[in-house]
């Protein structure tokens, strides 16, 4: 796992304070960092957020002062510090999910061979708490060294050897040592589960005299996967295993150093354990790089002036040579325009003659059409009658075909429905079988419970028959049981009341917020009504109370481009789409219809000044858009669905484009209901993921304006809590009425929120009273429970264990398993039948659809047949003669044809003259375009070539708006340009300069200057970004350090409270020191000790363990190892420490703990979450007369 720590979110982008994989150059791009595995920030429990308790030293319950001391104790000072920083540091934090055993990264098994004192040893660990104990020399610490060596640590880190070979067992036959550690690899945090499976075994071989030295990674089936150290490091990083972190793995030497270390040593230990030291070094290296970039930018800026002067000189010389080229271009342009003007003059005359000819042709064509129609009418009755009869026959045949298709479809539908009905019957029978199987399963479970109850009864009977039970033991156990029941009941009551208190807290805040928000809405609506009433006859204010004033000043001001607004004034509802008006307005979004549109920066600045003058805040906003033709958007993807773009009628193209750009009106669909929209738009792809048809992103539907969308193949819903309103297409009077209605509805909501606020405040106060009352009762029961335990401890030596009896329930459990398998199989069959039915449904529905379509088509054919029969009868009855006046029409056509022939002769003559002028103009245009497309060096050789016919065809006629002058004007201007060009050429020839060389020098100087300026810009931007990112990361690093310090301080005091003490951890970040202040008696403020050395050895050891456990709260490694944690501890303190460790470890049931001690812990009761491993005593202890190690015994409740 990486060390990313997510502190907060801003604009939906995560900001990180550190990453172990980042170097200095990657700090600019925070989102480019490798994603971290699932980790969470250290969490402070809900108990830290409880109401502040009474200070120690204030009046006690009996009304007397505590020893007359009025200064706050260590615990009181801690409570104040936590209260001050809670809201600022813990907002948005989350806790790791608890309640299930760890699944990834914990150690399942350790195997060593020829390692240190072990020839062969295999240790299987519990997934939660493990105690490894044994005499000195039994090889306990070798297990810890094996974990360190196998997971990447060096030999010196173990404090057992200087090199790896020294760790090989001293035996003449030992050539190599092998160490294996098997880690669990399950759950969401598993490392490459598809490759390694549910377990990863890491093996390290240490060869003494040749052979393989290194690592091997095996999968769940012990198949070798890799020998690369990088793969091991990646796996350890993913699972957040930190073997070098002394807080994760604390061996004997580190424990002793930490116990006797100075304040600065403890602070250094704190920084290394939390990885704050590594991050600080990374930030310092980044700051050095920023300084180097600033120095480089300064040097480049100093040399930039020289490049600017060189570029300006080259540009000046190049401009002087451009004057001749400009005159030459003007002359060629004028020659071309003169030729085009001659062509235009001839062409205009040609067009006039053609228009006269075309007029006569049009008249002649009209007469010819009339003649053709008359002739056709006289010759066409038989053909039209035949067509009508053929149409009637065709319709008759089509009706027969439709009837046949209908009959076939009915038969196919009946056949397709038979399998569906059979499957439905099978599904019904299967569900009946499921009910029967579930009843059998319930009976089997009941038999299993009866058997277990019988076993418990026999066990109780055996205990009652045991001898030696005294009456006092029975009474003490009864009192203990009753006290435990009372404690559990009271704890549950306290937890329930605290939970009710915590649950009501946000509800009270929410109720207050809703009352305040409702009152603000009432004020806004009341203000809107007053503005609408004051606005007179203006309908613009319906979109915003300042829209009218802004619109009036816009009309008076002077702008460079168009200024439109408000947008709502240009928007109407399409006819027939009125029902979608409120829905379309909701989809557009609030604060859009009152906006104004500009097209350039100058107009935007002027409009901003108008808004400031009027006093606009968030209303009457500005949208800037580039002028563009109206966008072409896609229509709705299916019939029955409208988009916002199809519902609105927008009278201005700029307004339409603005709504497309800013509101995506073509991607928001509108529908009458959720079901209808899903039926028409949703479909499932080949991969089984949901998708939306077309380019639709969001779908809004009536009646409340709720919406849904599809993201990553998943359907998401969004409810609209606001009341739908309409301002588009609504007049002022109706707007006032709607606003008043909305105001009444809001007033009703505010009244309801006020009543709810009063109710919640009352319940909140009552919950606090119940909570405080329950805590008092709990303290009383705890005292009774402690007394009963002490009585039982004095009597436990006389207890006799009850005899074992048979508890085998495997037969009943197998019966339950079999019945459960039967139920599962029937349910799988049920699912399969449902899938088959769903697979048949589309085919049946398709046949039904085809049958309905065939019926409807058959009805339409019958209607067409009736209409065709009537048409044929009417046509036969109304036939009349159509041969009149045909000869007269033919004579008129002949006259027009003679006139047209004369006009064509005149047009041909004018056309020849226009073509001659056109050829000249195109030739000149061809040479000009050729010159523009060629380099100056090659242009002279190309201009002499005559253009081909294809070249001239590609020349287009210039825009006629540039040809307003007659040919005489262009001829005079051309003569003047020739004279000026001759004068300039004579003057430049005398200077003997090369224009091509001057141009090349100018281009080189300009490119060099631009490259230098771009380089400076890139350096400055990089430096700016690095500085900004460094400051943010450094600030979050300090916040992170402060938060860990507070969390450590609180947990340290909490652990000391278990022993009746209290304390605080004093961090001095400026001097880099860490001191401990301990109050040995939590009720006596005078017992404070700021110098830990003044404490006894056991008290100092307990204090050190408390600090280590507190630091461990900030560590998220999957397992932690403590070696000889109980050094210098007396029996009572050692018992308290072990009880505390077990309680803490079981609470953190998603972590694994390994505790190593030379003391005997066999009296600790093992359970599924706790395992005790006793090491075999060393063989040297069996020698007669050898010293025997003494261990302290203790018992655990």
From TrEMBL:
<dbReference type="InterPro" id="IPR038729">
    <property type="entry name" value="Rad50/SbcC_AAA"/>
</dbReference>
<dbReference type="InterPro" id="IPR027417">
    <property type="entry name" value="P-loop_NTPase"/>
</dbReference>
<dbReference type="GO" id="GO:0003684">
    <property type="term" value="F:damaged DNA binding"/>
</dbReference>
<keyword id="KW-0234">DNA repair</keyword>
<dbReference type="GO" id="GO:0005524">
    <property type="term" value="F:ATP binding"/>
</dbReference>
<dbReference type="GO" id="GO:0003697">
    <property type="term" value="F:single-stranded DNA binding"/>
</dbReference>
<feature type="region of interest" description="Disordered">
    <location>
        <begin position="1"/>
        <end position="101"/>
    </location>
</feature>
<dbReference type="GO" id="GO:0030915">
    <property type="term" value="C:Smc5-Smc6 complex"/>
</dbReference>
<dbReference type="GO" id="GO:0016887">
    <property type="term" value="F:ATP hydrolysis activity"/>
</dbReference>
<keyword id="KW-0158">Chromosome</keyword>
<keyword id="KW-0175">Coiled coil</keyword>
<keyword id="KW-0539">Nucleus</keyword>
<feature type="compositionally biased region" description="Polar residues">
    <location>
        <begin position="18"/>
        <end position="32"/>
    </location>
</feature>
<dbReference type="GO" id="GO:0000724">
    <property type="term" value="P:double-strand break repair via homologous recombination"/>
</dbReference>
<feature type="domain" description="Rad50/SbcC-type AAA">
    <location>
        <begin position="110"/>
        <end position="336"/>
    </location>
</feature>
<feature type="compositionally biased region" description="Basic and acidic residues">
    <location>
        <begin position="948"/>
        <end position="965"/>
    </location>
</feature>
<keyword id="KW-0547">Nucleotide-binding</keyword>
<feature type="region of interest" description="Disordered">
    <location>
        <begin position="933"/>
        <end position="965"/>
    </location>
</feature>
<feature type="coiled-coil region">
    <location>
        <begin position="844"/>
        <end position="913"/>
    </location>
</feature>
<feature type="coiled-coil region">
    <location>
        <begin position="736"/>
        <end position="798"/>
    </location>
</feature>
<feature type="compositionally biased region" description="Basic and acidic residues">
    <location>
        <begin position="78"/>
        <end position="100"/>
    </location>
</feature>
<dbReference type="Pfam" id="PF13476">
    <property type="entry name" value="AAA_23"/>
</dbReference>
<feature type="region of interest" description="Disordered">
    <location>
        <begin position="362"/>
        <end position="389"/>
    </location>
</feature>
<keyword id="KW-0227">DNA damage</keyword>
<keyword id="KW-0067">ATP-binding</keyword>
<dbReference type="GO" id="GO:0005634">
    <property type="term" value="C:nucleus"/>
</dbReference>
<protein>
    <recommendedName>
        <fullName>Rad50/SbcC-type AAA domain-containing protein</fullName>
    </recommendedName>
</protein>
<feature type="compositionally biased region" description="Basic and acidic residues">
    <location>
        <begin position="57"/>
        <end position="68"/>
    </location>
</feature>
<dbReference type="GO" id="GO:0035861">
    <property type="term" value="C:site of double-strand break"/>
</dbReference>
<feature type="coiled-coil region">
    <location>
        <begin position="971"/>
        <end position="1029"/>
    </location>
</feature>
<keyword id="KW-0233">DNA recombination</keyword>
<comment type="similarity">
    <text>Belongs to the SMC family. SMC6 subfamily.</text>
</comment>
């Amino acid at each position: 796992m990486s060390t990313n720590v997510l502190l907060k979110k801003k604009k939906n982008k995560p900001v990180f304070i550190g990453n172990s994989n980042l170097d200095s150059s990657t700090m600019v791009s925070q989102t480019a960092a490798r994603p971290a595995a699932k980790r969470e920030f250290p969490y402070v429990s809900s108990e830290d957020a409880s109401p502040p308790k009474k200070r120690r030293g204030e009046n006690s319950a009996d009304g007397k002062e505590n020893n007359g001391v009025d200064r706050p104790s260590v615990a009181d000072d801690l409570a104040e510090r936590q209260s001050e920083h809670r809201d600022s540091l813990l907002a948005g934090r989350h806790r790791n999910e608890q309640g299930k055993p760890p699944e990834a990264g914990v150690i399942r098994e350790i195997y060593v061979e020829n390692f240190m004192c072990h020839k062969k040893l295999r240790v299987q660990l519990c997934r939660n708490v493990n105690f490894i104990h044994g005499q000195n020399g039994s090889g306990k610490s070798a297990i810890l060294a094996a974990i360190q060596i196998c997971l990447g640590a060096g030999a010196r880190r173990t404090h057992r050897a200087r090199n790896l070979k020294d760790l090989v067992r001293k035996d003449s036959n030992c050539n190599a040592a092998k160490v294996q550690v098997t880690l669990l690899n399950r759950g969401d945090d598993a490392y490459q589960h598809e490759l390694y499976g549910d377990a990863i075994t890491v093996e390290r071989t240490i060869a003494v005299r040749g052979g393989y030295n290194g690592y091997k990674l095996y999968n769940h089936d012990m198949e070798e996967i890799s020998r690369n150290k990088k793969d091991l490091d990646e796996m350890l990083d993913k699972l957040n295993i930190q073997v070098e972190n002394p807080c994760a793995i604390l061996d004997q030497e580190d424990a002793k150093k930490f116990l006797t270390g100075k304040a600065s040593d403890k602070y250094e230990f704190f920084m290394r354990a939390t990885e704050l030291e590594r991050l600080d070094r990374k930030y310092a290296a980044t700051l050095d790089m920023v300084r180097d970039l600033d120095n480089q930018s300064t040097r480049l800026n100093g040399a930039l002036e020289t490049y600017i002067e060189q570029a300006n000189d080259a540009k000046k010389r190049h401009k002087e040579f451009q004057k001749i080229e400009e005159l030459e271009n003007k002359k060629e342009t004028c020659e071309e325009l003169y030729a085009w003007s001659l062509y235009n003059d001839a062409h205009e005359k040609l067009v006039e003659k053609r228009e006269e000819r075309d007029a006569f042709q049009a008249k002649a064509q009209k007469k010819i059409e009339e003649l053709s129609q008359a002739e056709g009418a006289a010759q066409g009755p038989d053909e039209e009658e035949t067509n009508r009869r053929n149409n009637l026959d065709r319709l008759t045949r089509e009706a027969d075909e439709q009837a046949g298709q209908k009959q076939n479809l009915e038969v196919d539908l009946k056949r397709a429905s038979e399998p569906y009905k059979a499957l439905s019957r099978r599904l019904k029978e299967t569900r009946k079988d499921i009910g029967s199987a579930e009843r059998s399963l319930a009976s089997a479970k009941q038999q299993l419970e009866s058997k277990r109850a019988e076993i418990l009864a026999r066990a109780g009977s055996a205990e009652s028959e045991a001898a030696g039970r005294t009456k006092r033991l029975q009474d003490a156990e009864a009192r203990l049981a009753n006290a435990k029941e009372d404690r559990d009941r009271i704890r549950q009551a306290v937890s329930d009341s605290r939970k009710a208190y915590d649950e009501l807290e946000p509800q009270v805040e929410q109720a207050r917020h809703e009352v305040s928000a409702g009152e603000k809405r009432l004020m806004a609506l009341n203000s809107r009504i007053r503005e609408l009433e004051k606005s007179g006859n203006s309908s613009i204010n319906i979109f915003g109370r300042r829209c009218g004033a802004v619109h009036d000043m816009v009309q008076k001001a002077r702008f460079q481009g168009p200024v439109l607004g408000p947008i709502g004034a240009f928007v109407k509802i399409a006819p027939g789409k009125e029902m979608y008006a409120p829905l379309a307005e909701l989809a557009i979004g609030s604060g859009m219809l009152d906006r104004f549109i500009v097209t350039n920066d100058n107009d935007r600045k002027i409009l901003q000044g108008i808004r400031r003058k009027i006093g606009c805040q968030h209303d009457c906003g500005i949208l800037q858009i580039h002028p563009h033709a109206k966008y072409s958007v896609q229509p709705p993807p299916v019939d029955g669905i409208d988009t916002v773009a199809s519902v609105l009628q927008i009278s201005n193209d700029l307004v339409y484009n603005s709504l497309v750009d800013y509101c995506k009106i073509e991607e928001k669909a509108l529908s009458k209901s959720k079901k209808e929209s899903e039926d028409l738009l949703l479909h499932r792809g080949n991969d089984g993921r949901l998708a939306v048809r077309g380019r639709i992103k969001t779908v809004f539907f009536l009646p409340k304006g709720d919406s849904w969308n599809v993201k990553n193949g998943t359907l998401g819903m969004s409810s609209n809590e606001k009341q739908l309103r309409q301002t588009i297409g609504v007049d002022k009077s109706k707007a006032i009425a709607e606003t008043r209605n909305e105001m009444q509805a809001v007033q009703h909501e505010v009244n309801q929120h006020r009543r709810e606020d009063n109710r919640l405040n009352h319940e909140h106060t009552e919950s606090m009273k119940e909570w405080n009352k329950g805590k008092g009762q709990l303290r009383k029961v705890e005292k009774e429970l402690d007394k009963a335990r002490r009585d039982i401890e004095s009597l436990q030596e006389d207890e006799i264990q009850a005899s074992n009896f048979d508890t085998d329930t495997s037969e009943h459990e197998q019966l339950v398993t079999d019945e459960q398998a039967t139920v599962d199989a029937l349910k799988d069959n049920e699912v399969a039948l449902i899938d088959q039915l769903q697979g048949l449904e589309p085919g049946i529905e398709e046949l039904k659809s085809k049958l309905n379509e065939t019926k409807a088509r058959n009805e339409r054919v019958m209607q067409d047949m009736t209409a065709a029969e009537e048409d044929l009868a009417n046509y036969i009855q109304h036939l009349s003669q159509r041969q009149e006046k045909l000869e007269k029409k033919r004579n008129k056509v002949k006259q027009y044809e003679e006139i047209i022939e004369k006009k064509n002769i005149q047009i041909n003559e004018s056309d020849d003259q226009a073509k001659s002028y056109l050829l000249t103009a195109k030739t000149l245009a061809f040479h000009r375009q050729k010159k523009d497309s060629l380099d100056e060096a090659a242009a002279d050789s190309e201009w002499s070539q005559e253009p081909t016919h294809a070249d001239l065809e590609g020349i287009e006629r210039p825009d006629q708006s540039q040809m307003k002058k007659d040919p005489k004007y262009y001829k005079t201007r051309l003569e003047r340009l020739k004279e000026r060009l001759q004068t300039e050429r004579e003057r430049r020839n005398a200077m003997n300069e090369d224009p091509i060389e001057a141009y090349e020098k100018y281009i080189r100087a300009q490119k060099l200057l631009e490259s230098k300026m771009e380089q400076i810009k890139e350096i400055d931007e990089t430096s700016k970004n690095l500085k900004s990112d460094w400051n943010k990361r450094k600030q979050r690093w300090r916040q992170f350090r402060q938060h860990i310090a507070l969390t450590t301080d609180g947990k340290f005091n909490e652990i000391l409270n278990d022993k009746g003490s209290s304390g605080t951890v004093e961090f001095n970040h400026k001097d880099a020191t860490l001191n401990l202040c301990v109050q040995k008696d939590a009720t006596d403020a005078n017992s404070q000790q700021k110098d830990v050395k003044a404490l006894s050895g056991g008290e100092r050891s307990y204090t050190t363990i408390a600090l280590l456990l507190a630091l461990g709260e900030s560590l998220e490694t999957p397992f932690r190892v403590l070696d000889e944690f109980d050094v210098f501890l007396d029996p009572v303190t050692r018992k308290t420490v072990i009880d505390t460790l077990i309680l803490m470890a079981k609470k953190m049931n998603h972590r694994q703990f390994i505790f190593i001690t030379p003391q005997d812990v066999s009296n600790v009761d093992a359970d599924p979450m706790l395992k005790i491993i006793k090491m075999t005593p060393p063989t040297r202890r069996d020698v007669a007369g050898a010293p025997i190690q003494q261990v302290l015994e203790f018992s655990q409740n």
